[in-house]
Amino acid sequence: MNFNPADISESMRKRKRGNKIVPEPDWGPNNPNVTKFLPYHGAYIQLSENNTVACRNKSFANSITFSERPLQPGEIFLVEIEQNESGWSGHMRLGLTQLDPLEMYRRQSIPQYALPDLVDMGKSWIYGISKAHNNILEYMLDTRVLGVDQGYMYVKYGNRPEFNNYNSHIETCRGSVPVSLLKPTRGCDDILPTDMGSRIGVMYIPVDDKEAEMHYIINGVDMGTCAKHIPYKNTPLHVVVDVYGTTKKVRIIQLYHVSTLQAACRDVILHRMNKRDIPALPLPKLLKDYLQYGT
């Protein structure tokens, strides 16, 4: 590993206030490229870090959250599991809904559970994330070859994205996404989908001018079609994340904003070394805390 702690940007060392590192303004409220949770959610959800982190503060239910804005065709919504809580059964639920989150909030009708409650309300495609990486659902795969050009992959109607070592980026409707961001940080390659550090994403791909198919991306692997015949042009599709059961806290991984130097340094370091080795680095405690926890 060719990593020298002295190469960390001086800006990271200087951005301190009191005994805490002050993050650069990555997640400003007026930044249109930042992906957030909608501030209308289940009763036991607490949002933080400008609505990019969702944590269940009690029980195991009443923890449904929604994307702040509708998902676009081909756009990836990605979260990382930051904290689990033992003593419960089941795990995070993830999917899409055409129900209006704001209207549900106004009517106090956000259900306790995404499954089965929200699905039973109709116009929702949601599944539970399981420990079994390869058999979360019985998928119907479309493996037609994609066009690849200079390490970039292009998502086209009816195609299944292949996130492999030959593609450094995937082109989406909102811009180019490094494939490395879809994967866990170094040292977490063998984790289960439900483990801390796991990165779980959802997207939908139109197959014609009326219907789309929903895909999960789990730790950098596209799991194929898990829901078909979604009438994506009828009504906007919001992402649903139910922070359920053993899953206690999730963070949105920003795929489409322009990273600051501080955040970019952290990403590079975490992809080149095991996160468990950070405490042994010859760095100030504040920097090590930022590398480990992002705050």
TrEMBL record:
<dbReference type="Pfam" id="PF07177">
    <property type="entry name" value="Neuralized"/>
</dbReference>
<feature type="domain" description="SOCS box">
    <location>
        <begin position="260"/>
        <end position="295"/>
    </location>
</feature>
<dbReference type="GO" id="GO:0061630">
    <property type="term" value="F:ubiquitin protein ligase activity"/>
</dbReference>
<dbReference type="InterPro" id="IPR043136">
    <property type="entry name" value="B30.2/SPRY_sf"/>
</dbReference>
<feature type="region of interest" description="Disordered">
    <location>
        <begin position="1"/>
        <end position="28"/>
    </location>
</feature>
<dbReference type="InterPro" id="IPR036036">
    <property type="entry name" value="SOCS_box-like_dom_sf"/>
</dbReference>
<dbReference type="InterPro" id="IPR006573">
    <property type="entry name" value="NHR_dom"/>
</dbReference>
<dbReference type="InterPro" id="IPR001496">
    <property type="entry name" value="SOCS_box"/>
</dbReference>
<protein>
    <recommendedName>
        <fullName>SOCS box domain-containing protein</fullName>
    </recommendedName>
</protein>
<dbReference type="Pfam" id="PF07525">
    <property type="entry name" value="SOCS_box"/>
</dbReference>
<dbReference type="InterPro" id="IPR037962">
    <property type="entry name" value="Neuralized"/>
</dbReference>
<dbReference type="GO" id="GO:0035556">
    <property type="term" value="P:intracellular signal transduction"/>
</dbReference>
<feature type="domain" description="NHR">
    <location>
        <begin position="34"/>
        <end position="255"/>
    </location>
</feature>
